[in-house]
Amino acid sequence: MGNRILSPGDRAPAFDLPDAVGEGTLSLAEYLRHGPVLLALLRGLYCPFCRRHISQLRPTCETLRDAGITVLGVVVGSAARARQYFSRFPPCFPMAAAPDRAVHRAYGLPQVDRTPEFIRGTEHKAAEILREDGIPVPPGESADAVFLKADGFELTAEDEAEWHRPLQWVGYFLIGRDGLVRWDNVEARITALPEIDKLLALI
What we know:
Elements: E1 16-18, E2 25-27, H1 28-32, E3 37-44, H2 48-56, H3 58-66, E4 70-76, H4 79-86, E5 95-98, H5 102-106, E6 111-112, H6 116-133, H7 143-149, H8 157-163, E7 167-168, E8 170-175, E9 181-187, H9 196-200
Parallel strand pairs: 3-4, 4-5
Antiparallel strand pairs: 1-2, 3-8, 6-7, 8-9
Helix pairs in contact: 6-7
């Protein structure tokens, strides 16, 4: 499983990564100088659940921003690939590009093989979302394959390579201005954040 997953009381590893949206770099330390940070460590852009989650976070990140907390995302991929995607679908919060999984490892997030059970769960979840969005699944196609491209996304060679690597877990870490983790949520699948009031109470 790799390193131990960081938990409340641990010091959050610092990082400087390329900006996934514009030029330059993003520094965790720089954001912490201005206030607490909710760090979202995501998978590569190939993951339609992550892409959908990013788009759905707008109300949350705006509310947290008003409360003095910055949401900072990290997506696995090159800066060039990330900027290509986010130029079309800009996130509501700063997003860094991690060309490898070093930051995810530093926070203890595991990577695992996709078991048949996990693949079945992914298919079920994709079908559920497509039903909610009114998108049909043509005969002979999997819901996961349809969901992958439902937003017009096209896999690049880089995306394909990342998709074939072991599955990267995702996680949230609420980090105080002192650099210490206050709360974390680490899962194999994207999960909803708790009520914002609960996060604010931890700072």
